[in-house]
Specification:
Helices cover 32% and strands 40% of the residues. With 193 residues, it is an alpha+beta fold. It has an eight-stranded mixed beta sheet. The model has no long low-confidence stretch (mean pLDDT 87).
Length: 193
C-alpha cells in the first residue's frame, strides 16, 4: 500500500454515462495518487492548475503525560492559516478512488489521468472504470467478522475465564513464594559470607 497524496479536482472530469447513472459524477471526491511526492500532502486541481495546500503556522503541541486517554499522551502538530501554493508540474498524474456499496449493490474502481503541460492541465482521461457486484465481498466480510468474533470468544473463555483460579495460584502463591524464598536465601548468604 505505502504512502500517497490526496488530490481534489474541481474541474469537470470525463465521467461515462454509466458512472453518471450510478451517481459517481460528483466533483468533490478526494482521490489518492502516487504520481506526486507521496508525502501525505493535499493537492487541488482548480481552473486547470495544480496547487498544494500548505499552512503559514505549524507548531508542536506537547502531549499530556497524565491524560486518561492513551492518545492524548502523545503530542501532535497543530496547523493554522491554510493557503494554496501553485505547483508547476509537467507530466501525467494518475489519481484513483474505490467506492464500496454504490447504490447498495456495486463496488466501483475509478481511475483518471491528468496530463499537465507547463503547469496547466492539457486534458483529463478516464483510465479505468470497473464495477463489480458487492454480494460476494459482503458475504466474505460477514464470514470473516464472524470468525474473528468466534476466535475471540474461544480465546477469552478458554484461557481467561476458566483459568482465573490457576492464574491466581500461580501468581500469588507459586511466583511470590519462590521470590520470597529467593530473597531469604540471598539475605542469608550475605550474612554468612
Amino acid at each position: 500500500m505505502g504512502m500517497f497524496d490526496t488530490i481534489s479536482v474541481s474541474d469537470a472530469l470525463p465521467f461515462t454515462a454509466e458512472m453518471k447513472e450510478l451517481g459517481l459524477d460528483i466533483n468533490n471526491y478526494q482521490f489518492q495518487t502516487k504520481s506526486l511526492d507521496s508525502l501525505m500532502d493535499s493537492y487541488i486541481i482548480q481552473g486547470g492548475k495544480l496547487f498544494i495546500q500548505k499552512y503559514k503556522n505549524e507548531h508542536w503541541i506537547e502531549g499530556d503525560k497524565n491524560a486518561k486517554n492513551f492518545t492524548d499522551r502523545f503530542g501532535h502538530i497543530e496547523k493554522e492559516e491554510p493557503y494554496l501554493e501553485p505547483v508547476l508540474h509537467h507530466g501525467e498524474i494518475y489519481f484513483y478512488d474505490y467506492k464500496e456499496s454504490v447504490q447498495n449493490k456495486w463496488d466501483c474502481w475509478v481511475e483518471f489521468k491528468a496530463v499537465f503541460t507547463n503547469g496547466v492541465v492539457d486534458r483529463y482521461e478516464l483510465v479505468e472504470f470497473r464495477k463489480t457486484d458487492n454480494t460476494e465481498r459482503l458475504e466474505s466480510q460477514k464470514k470473516y467478522l464472524e470468525e474473528i468474533k468466534e476466535q475471540e470468544n474461544k480465546w477469552y473463555n478458554k484461557y481467561f475465564l476458566y483459568t482465573k483460579p490457576v492464574r491466581w495460584f500461580g501468581h500469588r502463591v507459586w511466583y511470590r513464594g519462590w521470590h520470597k524464598l529467593g530473597n531469604v536465601c540471598h539475605n542469608l548468604s550475605n550474612k554468612i559470607f
